[in-house]
Amino acid sequence: MDNMPSLTDNILVVGYFLIWIATFLWYHHIKKEVDAGSMVIGSYIGYAFFSIITLNDTFFNIRYDHLRFIPFLYLYIMLMIALSPAIYLHYNQPDKIEDPHSKMLYIPCIALIISAFFQIPTAISGSESSMIQLITDADAGQNAYLEQISNKAESGSSIKNLPAVIFNVLYDCTTFLFFYFLTRKNKNKLFLLILFAAIFIGMILPVLNGQRGSVIKAALTIVVGYALFRHYLSKRINRVVQIAGITMAIIIAIPITAITISRFSDRKGSDGVSGYVYWYIGQANIYFNNSAMSAGGIRYGDRTLNLFKRLIWSDTPKNYDERRDKYRNLEIDDYYFTTFVGDFALDFGPIASFFIFFIFNLCVLFEIRPRDGTIKLHQLLLIYFTLCICMQGGMVLFSYADTANLIIIVYILLYAWLRYHEALLKRFPLAGKE
Questions:
Q1: What is the rounded CA–CA span in Å between residue 70 and residue 44?
Q2: 268-281 pLDDT tens trace
Q3: Is 221 exposed, middle or buried (0-12, 13-18, 19+ CB in 10 A)?
Q4: In whole angstroms, what is the distance from residue 321 CA to residue 335 CA?
Q5: Structural element, H or E, at residue 96
Q6: DSSP 3-state assignment of 97?
Q7: How many beta carbons lie within 10 A of that of residue 222, not counting itself?
Q8: Closest alpha carbon to 421 in 380, 382, 383, 376
Q9: In a 3-state reduction of DSSP, which class is residue 280?
């Protein structure tokens, strides 16, 4: 990359920041209720702000290419298309969720609980860095991270930890179900408490391996789930959830900070940690603008549809090392963040990606139209899925890529059950009727 940022570069990145502020104001102009869409747009404002800092930060001595208007316009349009279901719900918020009356919804939650508690002994005994070590030992987080990276380089070909796979695959959908259960009049408080503990374990376990990304992803998922169902929760439950959320954030913030310092402080001195944090949060918009729309080729879905492609083509790369080697001719790879929009643009090209986003979200909009002031749970699940993509991938990449394609399969199965189980129950009355 070549030159120092010019005045035009700064005008463009500041303009991108301001357009998201304007979008936030427009979003709340008529209806001032804060919801999941508010959270997503607010996060985009934050990422854009850090992009301004990153572009002008001399810490790295990185020379970005000069920014262009069209990539920012394309990125904004694509993000707004992806947000369209949330925007529709914001202005057409039903007052009631139709209860699907299905005991089957407890099955994935129970599976998550079992897999969560099965992981605890292995995580504690197998990890070289306990929570105390992460806080007290400056090298513990870095060592755990390097160990995790070496394991990921061999991933994709076999299952080494079945409880972890089950847990990760079910996490997003069970978080959705947890918040739905909170809206019901008749609540099993003990079950909800255990389920909450399992969800919280999902934020603790990655810390023991020196990971921050998985923790942040889990936190963003919880934020989306709560914000989506906030309208349907009582004032008392809202207060309880907010207090629990703040407590979780404080507990997690300490080791996350320790991991960040451990990973980055030795590269340019302790004063350089902030520079890496700014770059980590703000890089996606800049790298998207520089390369995602014109990387010198495409990956033909090898990242976003990796697992599905591997079922058909055996030569599909099994992990990011193999993929980076196969597409080493591209100007950018998944070592850098380009947002989930960039991930699709690199896989299919900007034109095909536009039609993928447009057609998919148009279908979602058609499906989520509430009737008689009531919305069905399968409709909320579709909105939740789009929100998770937007929230989890706004700073990094498409979160359901590679083996995480399995999570998409879980979404499909849960949606199919919620959508069609009533017809099934008419034929088989004992099949999960609550």
A1: 18
A2: 544 567 777 888 89
A3: buried
A4: 10
A5: strand 96-98
A6: strand
A7: 25
A8: 376
A9: helix
